[in-house]
Amino acid sequence: ANVTINQKTYRLNPGKLYLIPPFTLHNDTCTGIFSLYYIHIYENQKSTISLFEEYVFPIEVDTDELSAILIDRLIKLNPDRELLQYDPKSYTNDSVLLNNLARTGNIPLNILLETKGILCQLISRFMSSVVKSGISNDARIWNAVHYIRNNLNSKIKVPDVAQYCNISTDHLIRLFKKGLNTTPVEYINRKKIEKAQLLLVLETSTIKEVAYALAFENISYFNKIFKTITGKTPSTYLKEMSVYG
């Protein structure tokens, strides 16, 4: 079996752990019988920079006996969450996967804490091989990111972000280019669309409701930005996710 991530193909080997970064398009192929544990983790939008923004993670790392024990415990803690479809062409789009994500809010606190602990341990296997993404340690960028993530439901203007950070707009743009390799506008749009993807999957809101909830006043513009970032229109995204029959 293979997984193709950003046009690069990786062979899935026994005794390995593989990590696909969030919001990353990928394809799975399998030419014979193949079994694996598939753990889908999603981050809620937080006010801090994501680990996946701060570090470049390896796709493949070696596993160990403890990892197998942890995965077995994870399954026992969260029964009846297996994927019902085994064909790679269908299981990643199965609505069962999305329903499992939606059930997370109803997990008892003790199970939720242990589950998160196990997931952190599994993610830690990759941390020993991460590489700094080059993001600046400048506190002004972190303040800007904090402001943006806390205001995704509002219309965010770059001058307002700059004022929050006590710097000029031009200086903020230069900091983002240097520290995040993007512009403030591009970063704002990407974070809004990532949240839109979660809202479309985990809630019953319509595309228009999601767009308005994220302060997009123009649905056509929302559709355009969504497609630019994800490669799909919101309606195509929903169709492929099998959320609506």
Compose a concise summary of this entry.
This protein is mainly alpha-helical and 245 residues long. The protein contains 12 helices and 7 strands. It has helices spanning 51-54, 65-77, 88-91, 95-102, 109-127, 139-150, 158-164, 169-179, 184-202, 207-213, 219-230, 234-241; strands spanning 2-5, 8-11, 16-18, 26-29, 55-56, 60-62, 131-132.
Series of H and E elements: EEEEHEEHHHHEHHHHHHH
Unreliable spans: none
Distance between the termini: 30 Å
Please give the largest β-sheet. 3 strands, antiparallel
Total of helices: 12
The geometry reads as: globular
Kindly state the mean pLDDT as a whole number?
Answer: 84
Radius of gyration: 19 Å
The count of β-strands is 7
Strand order of the largest sheet: 2-1-4
| Proportion in β-strands | 5-15%
Helix fraction, binned, reads 40-55%
Oligomer: single chain
**Alpha-beta content class:** mainly alpha
Description of the molecule:
The structure is a single chain. This protein has helices at 51-54, 65-77, 88-91, 95-102, 109-127, 139-150, 158-164, 169-179, 184-202, 207-213, 219-230, 234-241, and strands at 2-5, 8-11, 16-18, 26-29, 55-56, 60-62, 131-132. The chain is mainly alpha-helical and 245 residues long. Helix 2 packs antiparallel against helix 5 (109-127). The chain is globular. The protein starts with a strand and ends with a helix.
